Amino acid sequence: MTDSIKKHLWADIVNAPALPGVYAWYYSPEITDYDLEQTISRLKECREADRSAAEALVRETLDNRVFRHFREDPYHAVIEGPLKPTYSGTLEHNFRVSGGLVQRIVDDPDRLRTIRNVLDMSAPMFASPLYMGMATELRTRLATHKSLIERYRRLHRQEAEPARNTDAGFAWQIAKRKIPPDRLIVFTCTTAADDKTAVDIENILNRIYYPILGRN
After folding, report:
1. Of 55, 78, 133, 144, which is most buried with the most CB atoms under 10 A?
2. pLDDT tens figures, 45-66
């Protein structure tokens, strides 16, 4: 039998259940009050004189504050066929902001306020998980995640990138993408106290929800 799902903020991880279970990390995107007001003010000043500059500002703001945290790493691809040459290389995530979205924001910069407010409340209801896992003791496992994230935020450029499907790999990605830890949320759900229930649930959840920064 499982308990109800519980939400833990970054500062609250120490209070996670000391029980077996599954967990999921989420990131709540943030556009600060300062960035919001500065962007709206600059858009209103420049959109008539230089619309292309206003459009570039919208794209830059959305990319820096929202989209870059979720951009996929490159894929390594191989194309081959019978009696054909073999091609291999990397495929970059070609991410483009909708032109219609940019135009509407330039025309009405204040709509950024509504966008910011919805984004601020979007996790987890509208969000994909960053990482999902299981633990024989949730409190200890999540404390390990927190410690690794803090470590790689200090040192990630000085050490080789760990495997993506590990606790260290997840922490590395958080540091690499400069995701603010205080915007991370983790949800826990305890499970039966045996050695397979949480494993089975994690296996299923990873295959139907596709966490962005780590899949087992």
Report:
1. 133
2. 999 999 999 999 999 999 999 9
